[in-house]
Amino acid sequence: MMAQPVPHHATDKKRVKVYELRNNDWFDRGTGFCMANLVQNAEGRKEPKVIVESEDQPERLLLETKIHKEDMFQKQQETLIVWTEPVNGIDMALSFQESEGCSAIWRFVSNVQHALQNNLGGVDDTLSEDLAMDGPPAINLPAAELGNLSDIETSMRIMGSTVNGREALTKTIMAEDYIGKLIPLVEMAEDLESLQDLHRLCNIMKSIILLNDTSIIEHAVSDECVLGVVGALEYDPDFPSHKANHRHWLDNKGRYKEVVPIEDEGTRRKIHQTYRLQYLKDVVLARILDDPTFSVLNSLIFFNQVDIVQHLQGNARFLKDLFGIFADPDADASSKKEAVLFIQQCCAIAKNIQPPSRQNLYNNFVSHGLLQVIIYGLKHSDVAARVGATDILISIIDHDPQMIRQTIYRQMNENQPPLTDSLIELLLVEVDLGVKSQISEAIKVLLDQGMMMQQQQMPEKFQQAAANGDFHGRPRPQADPQQELFLQQFYERSAAKLFKPLTDLENRSDMHFSVQQASMFSYLVEILCFFIRQHHALSRYFVMNNDIVARVAQLLQSPEKFLQLVAIRFFRALIGMQEEFFINHLTDKRIFDPILQVVSKAISRDNLLSSASLEMFEFIKKENIKNLVKHLVENHREQLLDLSYLQTFRELLQRYDHTQGYTINMELFLETDDESGRRQPPNSRMMEHISMDPAEEEYWNTSDPEDDDESPERIGQKTLGSNGPMTPTKPLVDYPSDEEGDENADPNARLPGDLSPSSEGSDSSASAGGPPERIAEKRRREEDEEDEMDKLMQNKRRNSTSSSGSSATVSSSMGRRRKSFSPSSGNGAPKKIAISLSPALKSGAGDARTDGDA
């Protein structure tokens, strides 16, 4: 892509917005540049017209209207001209950016209409000059002499206050080469040691540059004028006792270095011009620069840089000579260093160009051996070369990390040391913290598997959490088999080398580290957290095999608070995975003992360490990780009691104590679609799909101590509504369901399995008062019990309690519930509710129904 030139709009064109009245609303037709002039028609005659060219597409006209002698134009306010098109009657309006532009167009329209109304006939060639739109007034600047500097400064200040004056001043300066005439005055004033004249020359140069004209700025930084311009700007009147050294800096030819000779003269000239523009923007004019001039300077720099890069990447001979320096054994180290810095500048410029051009540049660099250049720079003794190589690598990774990965795959196939090994070596020995940070980011990006591969290795129950953003992996494309093989080899060969400083802590008791060592541990633990989130299976084995958890726990003994925070964040990342492997690993290593010690010391202070620690325990409580809750309370109760004034730790203790360690497994409440599809219909009998495990079966079959202590009188008093006394030792016959019994049973037939006559007699005496009302009460009680069981079935679990540790309320409640269920046979067979109607009740003689244990 070739660079587009900076647009130079004609000074007689005024920036304007075009509006059209549609349905009583002004419609914006676009922004452009307006000019009024005499345009030759097809017949060869000149017609006065107002024309607006589009700002975005200069070849497209937003407006072209002919000026008639009728008084259809009106000027409103200072920047608005409205009229009605005589052909179609549409109302139009021009809104000018500057009032001077509106005045110039209005004067032209008024002059044309005045000429037509005074019977000047057709507007012919003889009148064209008189009717032309008023352009910038012609000005005459005083002669460029030391004695006229005061008048020159005053004239430029006055003319620079208006748009027309600025345009006229710009034309005059360029037409008369006024800058070239002022430059000799600088040396004359210096010879005369006239500080006042030098200050005036500085103000004049500032005024000329701040006219914000690209042609003036390009002329000012040309080879002929640049030293004289910056020489005048050295004498700033705001700092009368100081003098800058701009000429000495720019005139130093030694600052321009050609690693490989650039033969194209135009490219060399643009390189020099770009350097001067950057110096002018960043140093000379940094204090007085306004936004328009700043924008113009940036535009000139950008387009020059694009042209330079396009020329260099298209020059195959130049690239061959450039990268051939690193293959030449006779090349000195300084040349190679300069080549690294030159490539770094090219990559920095490439960040601002279009992606296709940037991709072509990187492809050309990689094909010529860019990776060897990066490896050379990373191992260089000079920090500038290491920074340069790191910048090159980061620039390419930010653009396309797969490009570097493919190169690493090729190195692996050729049994060459991969680039990642060089990055690891530099990370462990680098003293520059900025370079460390960039290298750690580069390692993480290169070893990023991508979201799809990550989810394939994650447990199924966490894939939805990852999709919701709980696991912060980079949204990269799915890793290919080459990436998987690369990861395996990395964990086999390079991971141990990367985390060797952590594993070496095993034999170290002193946790005082230097600044470089502490920062290294910080980056290593951060990389380790990233690996755990991204490389599920591989990272688990590595963490367990190298005892990484215990080594990170040693950092909690460091006096540096930020290292303790790094360790806390690592354990929080492991717990956040909610994997049984990591949770059991943490409990086996008894990691919470040093963690709670750190928390006890830091919790009284409002800092990041205490906040991160408290958030970790809050997460355990909120997610109800039962293994961790049980481990914490059973092994660290005293420490938790000391912290129980905080709600988080108090609720952890209460949760364990209320459930005696059998915490609720929240996963049972999270039904998948398959599980919800297997649920029984809501109107099916609930006892038919309750399954009981053997331990609970045995518990329900045993008797309660309170039942053994009860007297026969109390047993006789315990009845369920009107259903007669409890008979827990006699099993019931399995009857058909209530629905079948209500619809199909013969009321006069004796049901099989009726109770003994003695039981019937007791039922008769107990229910002689009013059988119909007692039957209704029985029905209501059964419905209430079914509602209670429906709630239990929705939770898919019954809370179990131990007989020794439960409260009196829980014991009595569970005892009553036992009396509501029939004894289980222990084989897990479905249970049914059985109802027995006595003959006396059927005949209306007042015999009561007997209900067994339900």
Write up this protein:
Helix 24 crosses helix 25. The protein has a seven-stranded antiparallel sheet, covered by helices on one side. 57% of the residues lie in helices and 6% in strands. With 854 residues, it is an alpha+beta fold.
SSE arrangement:
Elements: E1 14-22, E2 25-40, E3 46-54, E4 61-66, E5 73-76, E6 80-84, E7 91-96, H1 99-117, H2 128-131, H3 149-159, H4 163-176, H5 178-192, H6 195-209, H7 214-220, H8 226-232, H9 246-250, H10 265-284, H11 291-313, H12 316-327, H13 333-350, H14 355-367, H15 370-378, H16 383-399, H17 401-413, H18 419-429, H19 433-446, H20 451-457, H21 460-467, H22 481-498, H23 500-503, H24 515-534, H25 536-545, H26 548-554, H27 561-577, H28 580-588, H29 592-602, H30 608-623, H31 626-635, H32 637-642, H33 647-659, H34 673-677, H35 694-701, H36 705-709, H37 712-717, H38 738-744, H39 757-766, H40 771-795, H41 808-819, H42 839-843
Antiparallel strand pairs: 1-2, 1-7, 2-3, 3-4, 5-6, 6-7
Whole-angstrom Rg: 45 Å
The percentage helix is 55-70%
Task: Provide the structure class.
Answer: alpha+beta
Measured distance between first and last alpha carbons: 85 Å
The largest β sheet comes out as:
7 strands, antiparallel
Query: How many DSSP-defined strands?
Result: 7
Specify the overall morphology.
Answer: extended
Mean pLDDT: 75
Region (Disordered): 694-854
Domain Serine/threonine-protein phosphatase 4 regulatory subunit 3-like central: 152-657
Biased composition (Low complexity): 751-773, 800-813
Domain PP4R3 EVH1-like: 13-115
